[in-house]
Amino acid sequence: MSTLIQGATIVAMGGNTGTEPFQGDILIEGDSITKIGKDIPPSPGVEVIDARGKLVMPGLVNAHLHTGEALYKGRYDNLPLELWMLYSYPVLDAEPLGERLIYLRSMLVAMEALKTGTTCFTDDMYESPQQSMAQLGAAVQAYDDVGIRATVSGHVVNKNYLDTVPFAREHVPAALQDEIGKSAPPSTEAYLEFAKEAYTRFHDRSGRIRFMVAPSAPQRCTEDLLLGANELAQQWKVPFHTHIVETKVQGCTGPALYGRSLMRYMHDLGLLHPGVTIAHSIWVSDEDIELMGDAGVSIVHNVISNQKLGAGIAPVRKLLGAGVNVGLGTDGICSNDSANMFDVIKAAGLIHKVTTPEYGRWLNAGEVLNAGTLAGAKTARIEHLTGSIEVGKRADLLFIDMKTSAFTPCNDIRNHLVYCENGSSIEAVMVNGDIVVRDGKLTRVDEAALLEELRQLMPEFLSYHAKVERSNSRLFPYIDEIHKKCALMDIGVNRLGTDDAYGTRQ
């Protein structure tokens, strides 16, 4: 099937035009863009879309999210990460969730994402107490059904929880330590075999679904698992996706457990390279940033989640200056409470303006849009497939009505996209050449029926989860002590203050 988009205002995010808007046509054949120009004549049988008065741009890329949190959306507030995780990633008494609930949970996020302009996301999918192939398959099926492009992980933790949090062995009572120790994490061998089977089953399904390896964080995984996962990622050309120094507690973790920063620890293991994508990277030193830039890693800036959890502000200008690729993500659908990437784009455009009086260092709208599209695709190692409008790339596109209040009056379109638009002007969404949203409605699934089915299952789930919360609340006072202890420690980095052009100010 061929489609010709005529008379659009195009923001390509790639090629010679970059973020500069221009008028033109786009020819799509099958799943890919085959021609971009002006006055392209329609061939017989081609579907013509009149895009006069419309903005056509690449679909947004959510480079880091956890759909597993969707069932806790709107449930928690005013908790820092380590305390919040006791409930959203329970240590004690978690039971495996059923496949249908996981399917609906994944669908909930994917439907919101598509309707608000995200055509591609990276789901760093974690299950308590550990992931099964059937659970992973349920999420993959949801993404296949709804029509989104997704990179889905086998997220893994293979160390005892108490050995992943600094000073936990000193603060947590012995009885609780013994109880936690009864849950055996997966072995390195078991995880690598799981990853190989998942890759065989799910990778490149429908031309849209990819599998990646995702060791949770260097302090949460054994050295042999980190190295084994990296070997698979390199072999398969998929991301090695992990989390590093999201919080001050994690900033204290490297020195406490390894006698060096977590980034230096990764470097010393040979685990900083262009195939590595790191979520957060807030509490990084200048030395860390130099290591990251020299290695050519990617990071995902999860600006809203980082604010809600009080984690801090990532030094994005310094990271970009060092040569680090920076994408944007929502992070979890409980630490953000939404899958809307336009919210993230606006927050990223705003927050760095308060980090320094040197306004020449503030992020501009073009940089933010790049982070939300092409740079995000690079974090998933699929920048050759998506993230920009270029010949040969997949047709992952947004059709935006420019006659809405968000674009009236119309000045700099890039500023309108970053600061004015929230997804409500989207008329259609295309993924892989197929229209998956038209006039605000999903074309491949019955959204109302799926939401109603999920609502029917929630009372039973919340009854179970309330018991899990009560069990894990026993850890709260001890992790709270660790949080307060780390808050007072000097690790030579301050990401709760502001960065000026000459370094860090308290």
Brief description of this entry?
By secondary structure, this protein is of the alpha/beta class. The chain has a domain at 2-57 and 392-441: Roll (Urease, subunit C, domain 1), CATH 2.30.40. It contains 18 helices and 20 strands.
- Alpha-beta content class: alpha/beta
Q: Can you give the mean pLDDT? A: 96
CATH topology of the domain at 2-57 and 392-441: Urease, subunit C, domain 1
Work out the radius of gyration.
Answer: 22 Å
Basic shape? globular
Quick one: CATH superfamily of the domain at 2-57 and 392-441? Urease, subunit C, domain 1
Estimated helix fraction: 25-40%
Uncertain runs: 500-506
Structural commentary:
The C terminus is likely disordered. The chain is of the alpha/beta class and 506 residues long. The protein has a domain of 106 residues: Urease, subunit C, domain 1. α2 runs parallel beside α3 and α2 packs across α17. The longest helix has 26 residues. The chain is built from 18 helices and 20 strands. The termini are far apart.
